[in-house]
Amino acid sequence: MSTPRVLESLLVAMVTTVVIFVASMTLGECRDLASPTTSNNSTAPVSLNENVINSTIRQFFCPNKTYNDMATLFSNSQEVAIHQLFHQDVFRWG
């Protein structure tokens, strides 16, 4: 591999990382964490699923009991990000 291609790869990686970091800081909002709801019909897999989702939420310069929505979406895998967008109560639009 030639030197210019290696430098180009490093530049693309660095620019992508900086853009994601700056976008999370400037465009992301600190949102309150939804308190887990408990019901008599809850099962173990549901509560386990909530614990897995809550472990993927990123605080990223937000105070306690809040999370940064952009940092949470950017820093997780695609599967987790899509799951959080469509199946989690803490991501409220509007």
From TrEMBL:
<dbReference type="GO" id="GO:0005765">
    <property type="term" value="C:lysosomal membrane"/>
</dbReference>
<keyword id="KW-0677">Repeat</keyword>
<dbReference type="GO" id="GO:0015108">
    <property type="term" value="F:chloride transmembrane transporter activity"/>
</dbReference>
<dbReference type="InterPro" id="IPR051280">
    <property type="entry name" value="Cl-channel/antiporter"/>
</dbReference>
<keyword id="KW-0129">CBS domain</keyword>
<protein>
    <submittedName>
        <fullName>Chloride transport protein 6-like isoform X2</fullName>
    </submittedName>
</protein>
